[in-house]
Design goal:
Chain lengths: 320, 278
C-alpha cells in the first residue's frame, strides 16, 4: 500500500494533466510563456527606447532641478530655482503667449479650411484624385524648404503675396520684419503646411456617416445647409474633437518652420516654446533651465492628452 | 423639375470652380518655386512679378552645387534615411510580433507603456539624448543621425495592429512542420504584411529625410550636413538670392514629392491609421 501510493498519485497526475491537455483547443499548447523569445524580439527596441526615451525623460527631470555644465560635468542642486527663474522671466511669458497665439490662430483656420475641403471632396467632384494630391502635397515636403519658399512669397518688394494684396489696394507689408505682421505670416504658412492632414482625417470621418441619414433628411425636405448642421456636424463631433486636440498638441511643438521663416524674430514676436528650449539648451548651454522649460511643455501636453483619452473613453462607453 | 436640375448643376459648377481655385492656391507656392528656380535675377527682381522666365536658366542648379556641397548633403540624407528605414522595418516587425503573438507576463502593460511614449514631446528627450551621444563621442557622425531612430512606437503599433489580423491557422501549420517563432515571422507574417510594411517604410523615410531639428543639434561639420540642414544654412548665407534658394528648395522637396506621387495611398493610410490610434 505504502509503496503503491506514489505511483498511484503519479498516475493520477499524468491523467489529470492529460485531461487538461485534451481540453485545450488545438494550438493552445503555445500558451506557455514565450518570455525568452519575447525579450529577444523586443531587445533592439528596448535598448533604443531605454537610451533615447526612458533615460532622457528621467534625466531631464533631474536636470531641471540642477545647474549643470555639460562640458565640465559640474552639477549643483538648486531646487526649484530654474522654475522660479522661468516664471519670473518676461521672455518666458512672451514665449508662452506667442505659442498660444500661434496655436489658437492656426487651429480655427486649419480646421475650418480642412473640413470645407473634405466636405466638398466628399461630393461628386471631377478630378478628386488630382485635388487630393494637391491639397496633401504641402504636408509631405520638408518644413525647411517650405519655409524657404514662403520667405520668397513674403518678400516685401518682389514677393507674390504683396503683389496679390496690392491688387486689393493694400500697401506692401514687410511681413517677416514687422513684429505685428510676422505672427500672422507664420500662422498662414502653418495652415498651408498642415491642413492636408486634417483633410484626410475629416474625409475618413465623413465616410463613416451612413448615406441613409442624408437620404432620410432629403425625404423630409432638408436642404444642404440643414443637412450639414443637423447631420454632418453632430456626427463628426468626435472626429472634430480628436483633430482639435491633436492639432493643439502639434502646434504647441512647432519649431522647424519658425526657425527658417523668422528665427523667432522680429524682436521675439514669433519665438515659440520649442525654439526657447532649443535656444537655452544649444545656444546658451543652460541644460538645467532648458529642461525645466521642456517639462512645463510636457505638463501642458500631458493634461491635453489626458483630456483626449478621457473623452475617447466616454465616447466608447456611450456609443458602445 | 427642370429648374431644380438646373439649380443643382449650377451649384455643382460653382463647387468645382471653388475647389479648383483653392487647389491652385495650394500648389501656387510649388509652381512659383520651380519657375523662380530657372530664372535669372533680372526676371526675379521685377514688379509686378513675371510668372515665366524670359530665358530658361537651368544653370542655377549647377550654381547651387558649386556654392554648397549639395551632392554630399544628398548622400548623407540618403544613407541616414535608408538605414533608419530598413532598421525600423526590422526592429518594429520584431517588437510588433512579440506584442501580437508571444505570450509573456506583463505584455499588455508593456504595450501600453510603449504607446504612452508617443505622447512625450520631442524636446523633453532631445537634451539628454544629445548628452548620450556626447558621452559616446558620436556627435557629428552618422551614428548620431541613425541610432536614435532605429526604433519606433508608432511603427511597432502600426505593424502590431496588422499582425493581429493575420489568421493564426497559417502559423500553426508551420509550427507542426517544426518551424520556430523566428522562421514564422520571416516566412509567414512578413510576406503577408507588405501593405503595412510599405506604409511604415514610406512614413519613416519621409520623416527622416525631412528631419531638421535633430540634425541641427548633432551635426557641426559641413560634410556631415543633411539636405535639410544644408538648405537651412544655405538660406542664412544667400539671404535673397532667390534663384539659388529656389533651386536648392526644389532639390530638397523633389525626392519626397516623387515618392508621394507614386505611393500616395500609403501616405493616406498612414495618416488615417495614426489618426485612429487612440
Amino acid at each position: 500500500m505504502i509503496e503503491t501510493t506514489p505511483e498511484f498519485q503519479e498516475e493520477k497526475l499524468i491523467t489529470a494533466s492529460h485531461i487538461k491537455e485534451k481540453k485545450k483547443k488545438p494550438g493552445e499548447e503555445k500558451k506557455k510563456s514565450d518570455l525568452v523569445t519575447a525579450l529577444l524580439f523586443l531587445s533592439p527596441t528596448l535598448i533604443i527606447f531605454g537610451t533615447f526615451i526612458l533615460f532622457p525623460v528621467i534625466f531631464s527631470f533631474y536636470l531641471s532641478f540642477h545647474q549643470w555644465n555639460m562640458f565640465s560635468g559640474d552639477t549643483t542642486f538648486i531646487g526649484f530655482d530654474n522654475y522660479i527663474k522661468m516664471f519670473q522671466s518676461d521672455e518666458f511669458w512672451s514665449v508662452f503667449k506667442n505659442t498660444v497665439i500661434y496655436t489658437f490662430g492656426t487651429i480655427p483656420l486649419n480646421m475650418g479650411f480642412s473640413l470645407l475641403v473634405a466636405y466638398i471632396l466628399h461630393k461628386k467632384i471631377i478630378g478628386k484624385k488630382f485635388l487630393r494630391t494637391a491639397f496633401f502635397a504641402p504636408v509631405v515636403i520638408s518644413p525647411v524648404a517650405a519655409a524657404v519658399i514662403w520667405r520668397w512669397l513674403y518678400d516685401p518688394n518682389f514677393g507674390l503675396i504683396n503683389y496679390f494684396v496690392g491688387l486689393f489696394g493694400i500697401d506692401p507689408i514687410n511681413w517677416l520684419n514687422d513684429p505685428s505682421a510676422a505672427m500672422f505670416a507664420l500662422i498662414v504658412m502653418g495652415v498651408w503646411k498642415t491642413f492636408g492632414i486634417n483633410m484626410i482625417l475629416f474625409a475618413a470621418g465623413l465616410q463613416a456617416i451612413p448615406d441613409h441619414y442624408y437620404e432620410a433628411a432629403e425625404i423630409d425636405g432638408a436642404n444642404q445647409w440643414t443637412k450639414f448642421w443637423n447631420i454632418t456636424v453632430p456626427l463628426l463631433a468626435p472626429t472634430t474633437f480628436f483633430i482639435m486636440v491633436m492639432s493643439i498638441i502639434s502646434s504647441f511643438q512647432v519649431f522647424d518652420i519658425v526657425y527658417v521663416l523668422t528665427s523667432g524674430g522680429p524682436l521675439g514676436a514669433t519665438k515659440v516654446f520649442v525654439f526657447y528650449v532649443y535656444e537655452h539648451a544649444f545656444k546658451f548651454f543652460d541644460m538645467g533651465y532648458a529642461s525645466a522649460a521642456a517639462y512645463i511643455l510636457f505638463a501642458i501636453l500631458f493634461v491635453l492628452t489626458l483630456v483626449q483619452v478621457r473623452y475617447m473613453k466616454t465616447k466608447v462607453y456611450t456609443f458602445g | 423639375m427642370n429648374a431644380v436640375k438646373a439649380g443643382k448643376i449650377t451649384k455643382s459648377v460653382a463647387e468645382h470652380i471653388f475647389i479648383y481655385i483653392l487647389a491652385l492656391l495650394t500648389i501656387a507656392p510649388f509652381v512659383w518655386m520651380v519657375l523662380t528656380s530657372v530664372k535669372d535675377m533680372a526676371d526675379i527682381y521685377v514688379y509686378p512679378p513675371k510668372w515665366f522666365p524670359s530665358e530658361l536658366h537651368l544653370d542655377n542648379y549647377s550654381k547651387v552645387f558649386n556654392a554648397a556641397p549639395f551632392g554630399r548633403y544628398y548622400l548623407n540624407s540618403a544613407v541616414v534615411a535608408i538605414v533608419v528605414t530598413l532598421g525600423q522595418l526590422i526592429t518594429c516587425s520584431m517588437a510588433a510580433y512579440a506584442f501580437a503573438r508571444l505570450n509573456f507576463k506583463g505584455r499588455n502593460i508593456l504595450f501600453l507603456l510603449f504607446l504612452g511614449t508617443m505622447m512625450i514631446p520631442y524636446n523633453v528627450t532631445m537634451i539628454p539624448s544629445f548628452m548620450v551621444l556626447y558621452w559616446l563621442d558620436w556627435v557629428d557622425t552618422y551614428q548620431a543621425l541613425i541610432v536614435p531612430g532605429l526604433a519606433s512606437a508608432f511603427g511597432t503599433f502600426l505593424l502590431r495592429q496588422f499582425f493581429i489580423t493575420i489568421p493564426k491557422e497559417l502559423e500553426e501549420a508551420a509550427y507542426l512542420d517544426g518551424a520556430n517563432k523566428f522562421t514564422v515571422l520571416i516566412r509567414i507574417i512578413i510576406p503577408l504584411s507588405k501593405p503595412a510594411l510599405a506604409t511604415l517604410a514610406i512614413f519613416t523615410f519621409m520623416g527622416v529625410f525631412n528631419d531638421f531639428i535633430w540634425a541641427l543639434i548633432v551635426i557641426n561639420s559641413e560634410e556631415m550636413r543633411t539636405v535639410q540642414l544644408g538648405l537651412a544654412i544655405f538660406r542664412d548665407r544667400y539671404l535673397t538670392q532667390w534663384d539659388l534658394l529656389m533651386a536648392g528648395s526644389v532639390m530638397a522637396v523633389m525626392p519626397i514629392l516623387i515618392v508621394f506621387f507614386f505611393a500616395q495611398k500609403y501616405f493616406i493610410k498612414g495618416i488615417t491609421l495614426s489618426g485612429l490610434k487612440d
